[in-house]
Structures are given as C-alpha cells and as structure tokens.
Design brief:
Structural class: alpha+beta
Number of domains: 1
Strand order of the largest sheet: 4-5-6-7-9-8
Distance between the termini: 23 Å
Strand content: 15-25%
InterPro entries: AP_endonuc_1, AP_endonuclease_F1_BS, AP_endonuclease_F1_CS, Endo/exonu/phosph_ase_sf, Endo/exonuclease/phosphatase
Number of helices: 6
Order of helices and strands: HEHEEEHEEHEHEHEEE
CATH class: Alpha Beta
CATH architecture: 4-Layer Sandwich
Largest sheet: 6 strands, mixed
EC number: 3.1.11.2, 3.1.21.-
Subcellular location: Nucleus; Cytoplasm; Mitochondrion
CATH topology: Deoxyribonuclease I, Chain A
Enzyme class: hydrolase
Catalytic activity: Exonucleolytic cleavage in the 3'- to 5'-direction to yield nucleoside 5'-phosphates
C-alpha cells in the first residue's frame, strides 16, 4: 500500500520498537530513504513513532521539550522548506481514565509546542491524536461520554487546538461526512460493521488551507486496528 500511495512523507504511530528493531522491509521501502524513529526510553514495546521522507528534511527534532512526556517517544518533527511535519502519537487516557490527567498535561504542552512551530512556518500535524472531537466522529457517542478518547476534557483539548489557528483538514473538506472512522476495535466484528472512531487526523495551520488539495481516510486498507489517512497538499 505504501508503494502504491507513494507518499512524500510517511508518518507511523505506535510502532512499539526501537531504532534497532525496525524491520528490514521498512528500512528498504522504495522512495523513503530518510527515516527517523523515536521510541520509549527503557520501555520496549511501548509507544513509538517513525517519520519517513522522500527528501531529506532541513532539520529533525524529537519530543516537545517537556521532560514528563518526551521519554515516551511520541513525537518526531521534520522541518522542510515550506512547512513542519509533526508525527505524533498522543497518550491514551487509559481504562477507567486512570491516565486522564497526564494526558491533559500532554495536550497543553503539545499545543504550546505547536504554537512555537507555527510562529516560524506552517505546520502539518499527522497522527493518532486519541480523541474523537465531535459526536459525528464516533459510532456511539452517548455510550462513550465517560470513556477515553471522548471525555469532555479531551474534546475540549482538541477544540483549543483549533482555536489556536489549526484546522482539522478532513472536517474542513467534509463537514457532514458520517461513518468516517479510522479506528475499530478488534472485538465483535466492529470493522465489518463500521462501529468505529475517527482518532487519526491531518491537522494544518490555517494558512495552509489554500494548499490543501484533499484529506482522505483509506478505510479499505487492512493490517491494523487503525487505517491510514492521506493528506494531499500543494506546497
């Protein structure tokens, strides 16, 4: 699928492996020779992200400058001539919301990080943001109001991101699209029935909207409990 899609930049989340454990078939992906991996310090099999690029970035940074969160290997940022591309795997609030408070602290620190980038040049944020922003973004909103990914606090965090000058590219282009999900639990045949959540986003700085060509959910692509999304920008 990656070879057919032929992205300029490929962002991967929840890789669960360190640099030395990246499979050789990923290392050898045609057209993506510049690869940057972050993993959780001292926690093999936890979290992790990767950013793979066709052309070499001007600069690459890891984390968001917050010691509470950076050890988890959740963010890689690549600077290109016309924009920053941020690959992010946002923390899950956890069963019973046991990690809701750390998640909210991450949201606040991450927003400040994105604002600092946006002050320099436009931003494309790609990743598993672990929140369904609106009721239209999951199949059963009423039943999930107190569940991780759809609490009022997490949704408000995403609202604050939008208020800071960022745009959910898919909802900007397809404001009324229903059943547009990117995650389905493996339980109960949820994917076959499209009982899902939209947790994966391409978020852009407002001034990139003129360059936004499309934002797609590739729901037929198998291989994970999430499906890929694709952002198309003329930059």
């Amino acid at each position: 699928w990656v070879q057919e899609e032929a992205p300029d930049v490929l962002c991967l989340q929840e890789t669960k492996c360190g640099v030395s454990a990246v499979p050789p078939e990923i290392r050898a992906l045609p057209g993506l020779p510049h690869q940057f991996w972050a993993s959780a310090e001292g926690r093999p099999g936890y979290s992790g992200v990767g950013l793979l690029a066709k052309t070499e970035p001007l600069n690459v940074t890891y984390g968001i400058g917050d010691p509470e969160h950076d050890a988890d290997g959740r963010v890689v940022t690549a600077e290109f001539p016309s924009l920053f591309v941020v690959c992010a795997y946002v923390p899950n609030a956890g069963r019973g919301l046991v990690r809701l408070e750390p998640r909210l602290r991450f949201d606040a620190a991450f927003l400040e990080f994105l604002r600092r980038l946006d002050a320099q040049k436009p931003v494309l944020l790609c990743g598993d943001l672990n929140v369904a922003h609106a009721e239209i973004d999951l199949c059963h909103p009423r039943a999930n109001r107190a569940n991780p990914g759809f609490t009022p606090q997490e949704r408000e965090g995403f609202t604050r991101l939008l208020a800071a000058g960022f745009v959910d590219s898919f909802r900007h282009l397809y404001p009324e699209a229903r059943g547009a999900f990117t995650f389905w639990t493996y339980l109960g045949g949820a994917r076959a029935r499209n009982v899902g959540w939209r947790l994966d986003y391409a978020v852009v700085s407002q001034r990139l909207l003129g360059s936004l060509c499309d934002s797609k959910i590739r729901s037929t692509v198998a291989g994970s409990d999430h499906c890929p999304i694709t952002a198309l920008l003329a930059v």
